[in-house]
Every structure is written in structure tokens, then in C-alpha cells.
Amino acid sequence: MLLFCLVLIFSVASLFSGAIDIGVSSLLAGGDEMKLKIFLLGRIPRLLAILCTGIGMSVAGLIMQQLCMNKFVSPTTGATIQSAQFGIALAMMFFPKMGLGVRTFFAFAMAVAGTLIFVFFVQRIKVKDMVLVPLVGIMFGNIIGGVTNFLAFQGEITQQLSTYFSGSFALIIQGNYELVHLVVPLVIIAFLYANHFNIVGMGQDFSKNLGINYNFILILGLSISAVITASVVVVVGQISYIGLIVPNIVALFKGDKIRGTLIDTALFGALFVLVCDLIARTVIMPYEIPIELVVGIVGSCIFILMLFYRLKHGKRAIRLGKKGRHREGYSHHEHRFCGYKHHHQYHRRQRGRMEVMDNE
User: Hey, is 60 helix, strand or coil?
Assistant: First the structure.
């Protein structure tokens, strides 16, 4: 409820912020037709695009982190954004006269393909270190980005493609943003399959024992994340860090279960993008800073603070009261899945598993 109220407050602030001063009284009076058009055709579509971007990218990052069992995996570090940009470059080169529909199709296809290839690489890594997995994604994304830049240079589309490399809401108006509404049904599907994503994240053998089709749920979750990311890239451009830091911050308070954290993650993602957008619009008003720059600065600072917290406290969740719901040192997700009341019993079970794996 607190997140919902904050999102509502900042949404109202976003509607009435900008280079042109638009007040509630002027809208109700209806005397200035130009301000009314700006409000209806510019401010409201921009707000909807901001909310869909924050919700979509946060949920996409949450799904990828759960399926890969790695808190550093996101559409940015999983080569999803770079793959979508590669698809847009292909559409511009081979179908230059086609409209937004062809670019969207190529972006969707390449985003899904790139994400699946990244997961294929990850599954072939025997030792899935917490840092090694995102490093593989970053290297793979850089390779795709290099190929994209080469094709853009050869096809002389570098300037056209540059708009997709830096996210901005400045050009969002009615008629060119509706594609991002695709986030809404995809988030609903993700909520319906949330428990399945949790089970698949526990491993292939664990999923088969519970009667879950591992490959189908894995492809479904990655496809949802890829399509959400591609729709945001096509409409807004590249926006990093949202899918990386928002799920991690929510997990510090709510644990790792998707069904219990998805709504909080979506609301906090929307709030995060709203705040960054307001900063971008007011720092050098009447000019505007690209949202990618603000999100990058704020997100990197938050990410560094989270790293220090993890180094000091490990996986300990933040307790909001004197008597928190969870045992100190462990998240709700760990206790729910292990079924133990005391964390020393959890440690004994984990040590037993490691000894069995070593013997095998």
C-alpha cells in the first residue's frame, strides 16, 4: 500500500511537470486548448510509458534472476537488450521502407533468441559462480553490440539506430508508444506462472520430480522477459539497471518467492523510473536529460551500496520491525522451501547435500 500511494503521488507530479506549466485550474477551465492537447497527447502517454517501462523491466529482471538462480542476471547482463537492438538494426538494413511493425518483429525474435543462447551457455558452465554467469552475459552482449555497430556503420544507419541506444521519454506522444502496453498481459502471465518459475529455478531434476515441464516453463519465462525488454527498447530505447537493482532491493525486504514479491517489484520499479524521470526533467529545465543517464547514475550508486551490504551481511534480509516475520539471517523463501524452523538445521541439511554431491 505504501508503494502504491507513492506511485500515485509521483504519477500526479509527473503529469504536471515539464517545460510548459500546466495547472489543474487551467485544465478544468478549458480556456487554453494548446495546454489541454499537450496534457492529453503528451503528458498522459508519457506517464503510461513510464509506468509500463518500470513495471516491465523490473518483472523481466525478476524472472531472469529466478530462472538462472543468480542475482546479477538481468536483461542488461543477459544480452537481451543488445539482442533486441541487433534485431532493430537488421530490420533497418534489409527492410528500410517497412514500418515499426517489422522492427518490432525482428526485435522480439532476436531478443528471445539471444536470451535463449545466453541461458544455453550458462547451463554448460559446470561451476555457476555468482559473478561468472553475468560476466558471460556481458561478454556475449558486447559481442552482439559490436556486430550491431558494424552493421550500422556499413549500412549508414548509425544516426537512426542511436535513438535505440539511449532511452528517453521526451519523444513519447500518442500514436507511437502503444506497443509498450504489451507489458500488461505479459506481467499477468508471469504472475500466473510465478510458482512454476520458482520450481524451475530449483533445477531440472527438482522440476521433474514435481511434474513440471522444465523446458517449457524455462522457455516461457525467458520469452516473457525478452518480449517485455524488446517492447521497451523499440518504444523508449535502452534503459539499464532497472531489472538488476529493483528485484534485489525488494528481495532484501520480501524474500525470493516470485508470487510474493512480483507486485512489490512491479510497483517499486514504476516508482524508481518515475523518480528518475522527474530528476531528468527538472535538473536543467527547460531541457531534459536522457532517462538512461539518470538511471545509470542512480542505479550504479544503489548497486554499490547493495554490494557493500551483501559483503557485510550476506543474505540476511532487512527486518522492518523488532519482531520480524523471518528468522534473522535468512529470507522467507529459504525457510518456506526448506521447511525448517531453525537456521542451524538448514545449515546441516545443506552440508549433507554438499557431501553427497562431492561423493558422487
Answer: helix
Length, in residues, of the chain = 360
Average pLDDT over residues 96-116: 87
Range scoring the smallest mean pLDDT among 29-43, 57-71, 256-270, 280-294: 29-43
Q: Which of 187, 221, 191, 269 is nearest to 63 (CA)?
A: 221
CATH code of domain 2-314: 1.10.3470.10
Does 321 score more than 90 pLDDT? no
Report the C-alpha gap between 250 and 58 in whole angstroms. Answer: 10
- Helices and strands (H and E) in the chain: how many: 17, 0
Start-to-end CA distance of the chain, whole Å, equals 49
The structural domains of the chain, with segments of one domain joined by +, span: 2-314, 324-360
**Would you say residue 86 has pLDDT above 50?**
yes
Q: 45 vs 35, 171, 279, CA distance in Å?
A: 15, 10, 19
- CA gap 246, 266 in Å, rounded: 9
pTM score? 0.80
